[in-house]
Amino acid sequence: MNYSNPFRFTLLLAAFLFSGLVAAQSPFRMSYQAVIRDAADELVVNQAIRVRISWLKGSPQGTVEYQETHILSTNANGLATLQIGGGSVVNGSLETVDWAAGPYFIKTETDPQGGTSFTITSTSELLSVPYALYAANGGIEGPQGPPGIEGPKGDKGDQGETGERGPEGLKGDRGDKGEKGEKGDPGPQGPTGLPGPIAGADKQITFNDNDEGAGDDELLYDKESNHMSIGAPAINPDAALEIKSVSGALLLPRMTTAQRNALNSSEGMVIYNTDVQKFQGFVGDSGVITVAMSEVSAATYFVGNDGVNIDYVAQTFTPQFIGYLQSIEFNVSSISPGYEVIVELYEGNNPGLGFYFGQQTVTVNSLGWNTVNFPTGFLLAPGTTYHFIIKPAIVSSDFIGILQSNSSPGGEHAGGTLFAYDAVSGTFEASLADDMDFRINALINTQAWVDLH
Length: 453
Prior knowledge:
The protein has two helices and 30 strands. It has 453 residues and is an all-beta fold.
């Protein structure tokens, strides 16, 4: 979607709510709502955005008295809600604004991608200042007006006339009573039934097997703990259900994505998705999950800088869900212990270009998966392409090997591409069929089905 101007940015300045201004103990807060529409007059729904709020003194181009930013998401109706005074302060203090020295104007700037490219701008004059703001800066409350005159009481209406009673219906005749039939002779006695099942000892479950029942000493249920054991001689006190077998496996529900989405999903559900051939689980409202990954491990790319040859890689990815970046993981196949690398993160599908988020320097000392933790604050949006670069931090004869896919098999991440840096041309060359072995982990705040492997 193109987020260039013009945008319809419908403002719903709600009532300004200030509490505790007299005692000066509670923070200043203003409730603020906005409905965001794109250039085609379509609502921007369920989208991560960043908003910058500015108070201007004197005119729409006046001095910035106070400024703050917010990171939030629109809802299913395109509505974004925030509290002015509760964001990240950029300039000034809301508590020191002299409301009597107006007029004041409120300026809103929005980046619908959640970054700092504020492409949506709106400025409106604050035509009246709430009393709580004015009084908090020394204003004087006017006298209370006299009560209004009470209006006259209306007359009571007339009661309507009672209607006439309708005629009573005729009572029907009572029918004749039938004669009582004679008592029949008793029937013959039936054959004796089979004996009932024999109860099992203690927690053994009794079941019918060819009309013979008994307690099975390896089919157990403890009513007090609600624990059950199948194929074991005793109940495991730490397992709600234990299945002990060397000849069979637990078979989870198998279904398509459409069948899975038709479920009334609850946190903790696990299924096998036959469309993508993966185990999947339904996660709760908040948690760190892998939002993009590839784990093919078919080849190795060596990263190093000996002063003559410079070799390093980049990988693009698109997150499945909106969330705050927590860490990037990459898979190492060979190392020179103590080797330092730099991991850079960008928004965009052209390595080295685009919006730069930041970087981390880490020391690689072990084979397998290495984790690079990033500070909280980098918001990843689904449908947006990002990339990270792994390159040597020092010049030395040492190197590390990073696992990747090759054309057989190809990479797992749809839309993801592995790039190799060409030191001669100073550009990145794409390997469209391949991915690096990587995982992108983010903190999400939504319920969703996620891959478990």
